[in-house]
Design brief:
Layout lengths: L5 H23 L5 H23 L4 H6 L3 H27 L2 H8 L2 H13 L5 H18 L7 H5 L4 H26 L4 H22 L8 H22 L4 H8 L2 H13 L4 H19 L1
Length: 293
């Protein structure tokens, strides 16, 4: 019987927020380098989120976090670095090749999340849920598909440097998703403390690269503040999802953000291949339904 658990509900909400955010980035921030964009928006997101952190975080929990052992500290640091690396590698992939080959491969994150959780966290999914993960992942792949054969990006992965970078970025995003789940569930980090830690950590990791290609953003501060609010909201809801359900359940649903973004592009901007986007949307609905069954 179909039931919508809170974790799946949070995952769906995160997909809607991130999909809208991706659409806005394409429309209103195209003139900014990715690294500059990340620093500016993450700084705004941290500024939006910190009042919530101060209000809701119990000071008594901070010393316990500071006393993490080496293994626990490595998980937190590794998650932040994986998140930053995934984004930077994706930018490198886009520099190296066509988006039509890079985008579909970079979004097959759940393909990596599921085996990581099964092997290292002994996560078990029902056959129906595994089918849902596969279908939802296929939906994300189709949503990012552009031209040529549907299998061209996969074939390109054997020889294309860009496609290989795209694949590596997907693996890093998978490590990030699983790391967030571990930090929020196994390590029981307070969500309101975790969100600005991730956002600020990525900002610090990307800042040295952003400085080298910095462009002024002062005239666009209202846009950056608004986008930062969206990122703060998206990261909060994503963390709610990953604190509630396994990453192998949340990740395929959250990554349907790509379907949301292309549907918005098709409806509002009359972008090409809208029928393909509708197929992706239908697959996403089926995939989510199977996961939630």
């Amino acid at each position: 019987m179909f039931s919508l658990s809170p974790g799946i509900g949070y995952s769906l909400a995160a997909a809607l927020v991130w999909g809208t955010y991706i659409f806005a980035l394409k429309q209103y921030f195209g003139e900014y380098p990715g690294t500059v964009l990340t620093v500016g928006i993450n700084a705004a997101a941290v500024a939006w989120y910190l009042p919530l952190t101060v209000r809701r975080t119990d000071p008594a929990t901070v010393p316990s976090i500071a006393s993490f052992n080496l293994h626990e500290g490595a998980i937190v640091l590794g998650t932040i670095l994986a998140t930053a690396a995934a984004f930077l590698i994706f930018l490198r992939a886009l520099d190296a090749g066509e988006v039509s080959y890079v985008a579909p491969i970079s979004k097959i994150v759940p393909v990596f999340v599921l085996p990581i959780e099964v092997v290292f966290l002994q996560q078990r999914l029902t056959p129906l849920q595994v089918t849902g993960v596969v279908v939802a992942t296929l939906a994300v792949y189709v949503a990012n598909y552009r031209t040529g054969s549907l299998l061209d990006p996969i074939r390109k992965a054997a020889s294309s440097r860009a496609a290989q970078f795209g694949l590596l970025s997907a693996a890093c995003f998978a490590l990030s998703d699983v790391g967030k789940r571990v930090a929020l569930q196994e390590l029981a980090l307070p969500l309101e403390l975790w969100v600005p830690t991730v956002l600020g950590g990525v900002l610090v990791a990307v800042l040295p690269l952003a400085v080298r290609e910095w462009v002024p953003i002062r005239d666009a501060l209202p846009k950056f503040l608004l986008a930062g609010g969206g990122v703060a909201l998206g990261e909060h809801i994503t963390s709610l999802a990953l604190s509630t359900v396994p990453a192998s359940i949340a990740s395929p649903i959250i990554n349907t953000q790509a379907v949301v973004a292309v549907l918005l592009g098709g409806v509002l901007l009359r972008e090409d291949a809208f029928r393909t986007r509708l197929v992706a949307a239908a697959l996403a609905v089926v995939g989510v339904g199977l996961i939630a069954a």
